[in-house]
Amino acid sequence: MTDSNPAFLTAGAAAAEIHAGRLSPVDLVDALLARIDGLEPKLGAFVSVWENDARQAAEAAHKAIGAGHAVGPWHGVPIALKDIVEVEGRVTMGGSQHWAGRISEVTATLARRLIAAGMIVIGKTHTVEFAMGGWGTNRHLGTPWNPWDLEVHRTPGGSSSGSGVATAARLAPWAIGSDTGGSVRVPSAWCGLTGLKTTIGRVSVHGVLPLAPTMDTPGPIARDVEDAAQLYCLLQGPDANDPLTLRHAPDDPLPALRRGIAGLRLGTMADSERAGVDAELLAAYDAAVDQLADLGARVETLALPQSTEAYGAMVGRLIGAESYPIVGALVDDPDLPLDDDVRPRIQLGRDMTASDYLRLLRDREAHKRNALLALDGFDAWLTPTTVTPALPVAEVDQTTTPARFTRPLNFLDWCALALPCGFTAGGLPLSLQISCRGHDEATALRIGWAYQQATDWHRRVPPGLDD
Questions:
Q1: What's the mean pLDDT when you consider all of the chain?
Q2: SS3 content of the chain, % helix, strand, coil (to 5)
Q3: Residue tagged active-site, from 24, 82, 161, 323
Q4: Hey, what's the torsion of the CAs at 233, 234, 240, 243, to 10 degrees?
Q5: Which helix (H) or strand (E) element contains residue 294?
Q6: N or C: the chain end with fewer CB closer than 10 Å?
Q7: Does domain 12-307+365-459 correspond to CATH entry 3.40.220.10?
Q8: Coil, helix or strand for 55?
Q9: Exposure string over 239-270, b if 16+ CB within 10 A, otherwise e
Q10: In the chain, where are the structural domains located?
């Protein structure tokens, strides 16, 4: 263990130091809490910081590990939870001021699994209200500050905004997000992180506030692919409280992670999809594709049956249809303190009939089959994660979405990995998205791992926050 601040360690490195006896969980938690204390007034990543509980858990972990009673390799490693993940007896607001006093009556299955592994929950992170929005903004509870620009308030990405900011700013080694249309991947993209959108049914949603139940997928936000893969292993698995998790056996991506990508066939986006994408982002995307080819992958153009914008529009309708029965009565009440940018997104479902909804579900199945036919013979599809780098919050058009490249994967029930692939001339992160057919997270992680072994974008720290 060097004299460097342990808050800068990845989760995997922190775990190794703890279990080698070179780092105490107490010192790690102290370092993170000191960093939170200094930076949180500026960044606003957390809804609540569980300082006392985290310190007590760290003391207990230190004693247990020292006595030879570690419960596993992640005992003593902290994590942050998006504030849609329920923990019994705690407030879970889901980004809504209206729910400021809402006490959880259950603990989410994923939280139970993390705690059972000995991990320390350091706090709850901000989210867009009801997890409905890709920009990461929240009118009433505050918009976290993207740490890559300390002068201009830029979009952190949403809806898992606080999880992205906390992980990027080294306030937590990793965090939990959720992804219904890009809410793990967009914050990962704009905060220079690695985020995994899991296939629905891989990770239990029991105890996670719902938005659109046919597309909601919890997942990891981490600093590198290896941490994302390790956290995915902890999260996935059958849960009787979520029947979708019983349909597929867990799949460990770790044995194949370091296998390399020689011979894999990777699809690149058609020329028509390049329109409207930021020039620096396109250049970074092209360079990433060339890097993967240099690593031995076969790279060819792959055009899906529908444009990303067409898929995205259907996602918007589906989210509206499924979220309106859940929170429609709230968004329709003008007297409640709700985000007026979020209301119309939910209200897309207000006038949708049962016939409209069933027809959308039927059409979705046809689109899924056709997309799989297009993917036949390919191992993955490569796109940028977003269309632009992070924008100044003041310039955001809230009637639009930054999720053009992310939404289609939720609609098609594919999995996807977002990871850094460069920076703008002004120092803002740029991101590559690696999309694979459903339940093939192992391949997405394998490709991402190979890319990160050949590059160092994921190792960079926001300037001004690197000491």
A1: 97
A2: 40, 15, 45
A3: 82
A4: -40
A5: helix 279-294
A6: C
A7: no
A8: helix
A9: beebebbeeeeeeebeeebeeebeebebbbbe
A10: 12-307+365-459
Write out pLDDT tens, residues 146-202: 999 999 999 999 999 999 999 999 999 999 999 999 999 999 999 999 999 999 999
* pLDDT tens digits for range 380-398: 999 999 999 999 999 999 9
Condensed to tens digits (0 to 9), the pLDDT of residues 5-49 reads 999 999 999 999 999 999 999 999 999 999 999 999 999 999 999
| pLDDT, mean of residues 307-323 | 98
Radius of gyration of the chain measured on its C-alpha atoms:
21
159 is catalytic: yes
Q: Is 183 a known active-site residue?
A: yes
| 43 contacts 162 by C-beta, under 8 angstroms | no
Looking at residue 242, what DSSP letter applies? Answer: B
CA separation for the pair 260, 413 (Å, rounded):
25
Which of these is catalytic: 159, 160, 163, 178?
Answer: 159
The rounded distance, in Å, linking the Cα atoms of 245 and 413 is 14
* pLDDT tens figures, 271-282: 999 999 999 999
Candidate list 183, 323, 431, 435, residue with the active-site label = 183
Residues 6+ apart with CB under 8 A from 378: 265, 266, 267, 300, 302
Closest CA to 251 of 292, 201, 295, 298: 201
Residue 124 annotated to the active site? no
Residue 39: other Cβ atoms inside 10 A = 21
For tokens 């698995």, name the residue: 237
DSSP codes, 167-206: HHTTSSS-EEEEESSSTTHHHHHHTT-EEEEPPTTSB--T
**Residues 221 and 175 sit within 8 Å (Cβ to Cβ):** yes
